[in-house]
Amino acid sequence: MLFVLPHASLLKTCHHQKKKCVGYLPKYVKFSLPWTEKFGIVKNCARMSDTDRQVSDSYGKLGRDRAPSDIIATQLSVLDQARSFKSACIVGATGFVGQYLVLLLARAGVELTIVTRDVAKAKAIFAKYERRGQSLQYCELSSSHRSHNEILKTCFSKKDAIVNLAGAPIAGRRWTETYKEQLISSRVRVTQKIVEVIKTMDKEERPKVLVNASAVGYYGVSDSKEFDETSPPGDDFLAVLCRRWESAAQQLDQSFGTRVVILRFGIVIGSGGGVLGSMTPIFQMFLGGPVGTGRQWISWIQVMDLVSLIIHSITNENMFGVYNACSPAPVTMSDFCNTLGKIIGRPSWIPVPAVVIRTILGEGSIVVLDGQRVYPSRTLAAGFHFQYPDIRSALEASVRIH
């Protein structure tokens, strides 16, 4: 489940710099509603504290501008864990989670290959590492031609890990039949291609582990049921998509010598994007509130916990199969919005009616109006420790506003 909040189309500019701000709300931010430019009305919100600016500046950059200030001393153990392997290929590295993963692995000195459909875009995003003397390799994921498979085989050869995060955005779009096909192609077919290439490699050349993304949408939706990794799948479009996605990865069974770990992502919370990228500005303008009934469940994970879990999946050789990548403390939409409002210092008082979401998104409204209560039973049993186990700590680490 992800959020789409249609209160406003938000444009965000920073008075003290030309680039878009990522990682925190800058000193002065201008937010514009669709009708405000016509009347010259804007809202100035959120002064960032000097401490946040110093922390953010001291930890480099992420994406186009600032780095998340989450990467602090508490994450040193994750860096140490990442240093226990030498090389990785990241498929889907230019997305929200992928950029955080690349940032941390690059800091750990891991040799990285970025597999992407748009090499120019990836190079623009990650150019900062080249300037720091950290060499990244790039591999284009574009064609099904045999010669291209040979290129991928070279990229995958003897890698410690392949991390597949590829997938077109599920939320915020109306699911036309054409877009449904794109959702399938960007997940199922990309995964099939990765598995096909690995299968054709000599055993001693194959990567040690494939960590493949999935989603808690696998379980379908329910306000009353509880789910863990042993629960059966749902039957809506997202559930079927996740089943096909996971099935594609599971074709690489243990006989091929590559361990397969599937992580079912919950809602990802972090600074610089994800759900908070759309919600925080709206709350800053006193327009925040729950979507639909507010009773739907949100199974979530803080982005640094997710990155840590990916690394844990790579380094823990006893991990295989499916794990829920979500906090052990799911919350309702109302509780999520109330907590966010308290942290920002704004009320959660303007709900978005379900009929509005359904009108805008059609079938895709299920992502916003329905949810699932998911627990990470196998993840905890595998010895993973959540740095941010409750929603308040996760939001406080992600929203740097005072």
UniProtKB/TrEMBL annotation:
Residues 352-397 form the DUF1731 domain. Signal peptide: none annotated. InterPro entries: DUF1731, Epimerase_deHydtase, NAD(P)-bd_dom_sf, SDR39U1. Coiled coil: none annotated. Pfam families: DUF1731 (PF08338), Epimerase (PF01370). It comes from the Eukaryota. Residues 89-324 form the NAD-dependent epimerase/dehydratase domain. This is Uncharacterized protein. It comes from Galdieria partita.
